Amino acid sequence: MTWDPFGTIADTLWLGGGQWAGKSTVARILARRCGITAYHYDYHDARGHDARRVADRAARGEPLTGPGPDEVWVRRTSAEMARDALEEFGRRFEWTLDDLRGLVSGRPILAEGWGLRPELVAPLLDSPGRMLVMVPTEEFRQRQLRELPRAREFGPRVSDPERAQANRVDRDRLLAVSAAEAAREHGIRVLAVDGSRDAEQVADEVADHFSPYLANLS
Fold it and tell me: InterPro entries attached here (predicted)?
């Protein structure tokens, strides 16, 4: 592991998994409850990492803007999209570690996000208990797609929005399945979220999982 000047990475708790499982909501709840620091992968990736992504493309001799929306969402299969996402997660993970290395905190840091893949995080862990993978059941995932605006609405302008959304939905399903499989391979607990409990109750279970690392917080 690259130099970790403040020991942040070694002490980080990790919450990975599938889209629409409630990871960000749970992280916010635990930050308020316990006073820990929540690191939201999606927020950093959409902002601070974007310039690094452009520089990375330049270094590889690729167009700086990347492929167009139709190329990304319409002309590829969901399996190809999932494969490419996994490759991209590996590159982006190094940027996440850079973010975490620069943090100083007297309390645990909880890093959450779908790009925090078990196979990437596992080599950094002194115990598999430092990570939890949340995945939605298929029934709950479909409910989220019906009821959650940001899940059901497709933003980019493409020639075939229906196909693009179907590809995105199935890509996310494939990535959630592979996250659960990878977690089990590394002895990391998988929490299936089925919608039968509210966010506070799911946060209770996540807090219980991480309790050895949160026990001394007041």
Answer: P-loop_NTPase
CATH number of the domain enclosing 158:
3.40.50.300
CA-CA distances (angstroms) from residue 183 to 149, 175, 178, 200?
Answer: 29, 12, 8, 24
Split into its structural domains, the chain has a count of: 1
Helix axes 23-34, 199-209, angle to 10 degrees: 70
Would 2 be classed as within a structural domain? no
Supply the pTM of this predicted model.
0.91
Closest CA to 112 of 38, 168, 179, 200: 38
Domain that holds residue 70: 8-210
In a domain, 166, yes or no: yes
Q: Say if 218 falls within a structural domain.
A: no
Q: What is the pLDDT along the chain (218 residues), one digit of tens a residue?
A: 567 888 889 899 999 999 999 999 999 999 999 999 999 998 887 776 777 777 777 788 877 677 889 999 999 999 999 999 999 899 889 999 999 998 888 888 999 999 999 999 999 999 999 999 999 999 999 998 898 888 878 888 999 999 999 999 999 999 999 999 999 999 999 999 999 999 999 999 999 999 999 987 75
